[in-house]
Amino acid sequence: MTISLNIHLLLCLLAISLTCLLGCGRKDIQPAAEGLDKPAVVTDLSASGDKSPNENENTDTRHMVRAATTADGMQVDALSHADIHQVDWLKPRQQAQLATANQFNAFHNFQFRDRQPESGIQFRQIPVDCATREHKSAHYDHGNGVVVADVDNDGLLDIYFLTQAGSNELWRNLGGGKFENITEKSGTAVADRISVTASFADIDNDGDADLYITTVREGNILLANDGKGNFQDITAESGLGHHGHSSSPVFFDFDRDGLLDIFLTNVGTYTIDQQAPATAIKDRDVDYYVAFNDAFSGHLKPDRTETSILYKNMGENRFRDVSAEMNLQDTSWTGAASPIDANSDGWPDLYVTNMQGHDEYYENDRGKGFIRKSRDLFPKTPWGSMGIKVFDFDNDGQMDIFVTDMHSDMSENVPPEREKAKADMQYPESFLRSDGQSIYGNAFYRGAKDGTFSEISDEIGAENYWPWGLSVGDINADGFEDAFITASMNFPFRYGVNSLLLNDRGKRFVDSEFILGVEPRRDGQTSAICFEIDAATREFFGPAKPYLEKICEGRSGDIEVWGTLGTRSSVIFDVDEDGDLDIVTNEFNAEPMVLISDLTEKKPIHFLKIRLVGTKSNRDGLGARVVVHTKSGTYFKIHDGQSGYLGQSSYPLYFGLGEDDSVEKIEVLWPSGTTQFVDGPIAANSLITVTED
């Protein structure tokens, strides 16, 4: 095994060295690739297939092809519009999952339907060339976030979509599942740079949702809300205009002084000091920083490290970097983090994901600093962690942690039937550098009363393939939290499904994306136009060279290249205000999905929405512990705003109540340390605002 693996690595490195002469279509010299590129597909081209019927006769015509790498190598299929979305294994997989519907107890007699056209939302995420035509194994392929907040205080949640090239867009909720574009009016476009994601939070406790946006190298942006959905750029005076490779900004009050602080996750340097045009934008010039050819090996190079930053809110919309002072100088290649009070002392600790190595856990020393206790509490973590959500899976009153692992799955292209298994890791320890102490797939840590955690992902069915991150919510309102995991890659990979995991009453997760109508996508879509190759272009450079040459074999005319669809981020909330939870996504190189549930049409449900308003604590109430008591039991949530991969939103807590039609009592432990009770009975199916005494 060792000999064959080393041979494979040498071949891979040789192939990369030969093909990675240049990046993103340019002929300027940049460093040759070192280490591993993300997928081991460059060496698999000999196994590729091509279904073009007249391969040597395709001259002076326009070709339509779908390019996708499978477990059998790269497939370039010449297809008609009628067949471009056909994926052979989808129908059998759907039938197999539907056959399991009578094997679990969670209610599932309802469906989601993608109502994006009816919603009025016309946003489309536009990636840079390094993530499409000039595909590199770089962090541009992580896509963008989507977040929600009631930006104009009209009682309806609005949606902010982010993109790489082009304009971010803010869509105002008109009610009834309809939206209007208020981007220009609100001042939230940020069209002059490449965005990554954003977080909504009330930074100044004035009662409205402000917006912090991260970008690639051209400066993060803080926008202050005037309470009516109009935003003003206050970055310069705030101290938050960091220039780097930032990802998720996490708002939490680490010192419990009533002002929200920020932990800004920084990935690492994955671009060079050279720009190229984003060719998908036709009406104006948009440049972006070109990715390293060997960006996926960046964790092996100390000079590419970027330390994440802890900002303390000093008041008056000003922030100060206190990372060194608080002993929180994390150098992981991280894109996400989550607060968690793991030791139940009332002070928010921090779990930091690492997409290429060990995750880290920092215990909060009563607001005076952080103590690294990573391996003490979590001896093994996923090697390629991407998303994280902290929630109570089994209603035992203890916080559990679900971590998704994308990068372990990139070491090998597997067929669909192997997607529920942990990765058979192909990378050597010299590349992993985790001392054999990694989980090669998703992790689920069940919390115990003594403050310890046990990893039970395989036991409860928490594994899937190519996951980015997850949104959690009680989508069938039975009192147990379910999970929607955004998954799949795009060009040059095969189609992959999103995962919808129904919580079978705290015992296990059940795969339900086909049962509940999330898959197949609307109109059976699996692909979208990715880019075009004109007849005059047949010389290619960079890591995508083998793919592009394979696509062009035997074809001398223009080529329309289709790549697979893939979701990156999501948020779960009640889009149409009918009482059940819906799902909105941000896709990669496509318009979003607006997945509307018909649960309330199928059965009567009971739920309670709770909006927190802090007075001594931060106004959003982030960090509050909320317990809802009913005659059947208790439901427990921590209000952290973590709404999905790359996203933090400002929205009410949603409690599914099962068969209980009222609440006996609400208990809130505020970050200020005070406990408040709201006595019942409180009628179900309502929104209640709890203001801190």
* Radius of gyration based on Cα positions: 24 Å
Tally of alpha and pi helices:
10
Rounded average pLDDT: 91
Spatial strand arrangement across the major sheet: 12-11-10-9-42-41
Largest sheet: 6 strands, mixed
Percent of residues in beta strands? 25-35%
Straight-line N-to-C gap = 65 Å
Low-confidence stretches: 1-59
Count the strands?
A: 46
Percent of residues in helices comes to under 10%
The shape is globular
Derived structural class? mainly beta
Short characterization:
The chain is mainly beta and 693 residues long. It has 10 helices and 46 strands.
Structure description:
The chain is mainly beta and 693 residues long. Helix content is 9%, strand content 34%. It contains ten helices and 46 strands. Strand 19 (337-340) and strand 20 (349-352) form a beta hairpin. The protein is globular. The termini are far apart.
Overview features:
6-stranded mixed sheet; mainly beta; globular; disordered N terminus; 46 strands; about 700 residues; 5-stranded mixed sheet
